Amino acid sequence: MIDNKSAPYGILALRVTTGALFLFHGLVKLFVFTPAGTAGYFESIGLPGALGYLTLLVEIVGGLALILGVKARLVSLALVPVLLGAAYFGHGAFGFNWSNPNGGWEYPVMWAVVQAALAALGDGAYALVPSNKQAPRVQYA
Length: 141
Description:
The protein has 5 helices and no strands. By secondary structure, the protein is mostly helical. It has one domain (7-121). α1 packs across α5 (106-121), α3 (49-68) runs antiparallel to α4 (72-90) and α4 packs antiparallel against α5. The termini are close together. The mean pLDDT is 90.
């Protein structure tokens, strides 16, 4: 059964947590690895360097949007391919387990599923700019 009173706060917790993680990862790419270093890494794994800059930007802007609740459903949906790309291109060769050297692919896939679930669930409580359509409310007798 879905508790319509507490569910928006559960969604809020997932939205803010994943937003903070995206923001953190984007800021690490910006300040630690640097944009040029991030682009160089993308090139080293056979991707266009420009995709590194785009990923950095998407992680920072997407993270902030999730934290604030700005079109969170759309942002969550847009982040799914970023995570699947990280799983395939960034971690796919290192096996399933995230504790493997260089990380495994299951962690970014799990986050992709979380983002897909958030896209399906809606914005949750305290969304600054809610998405146009909310998931239908489930009513039980």
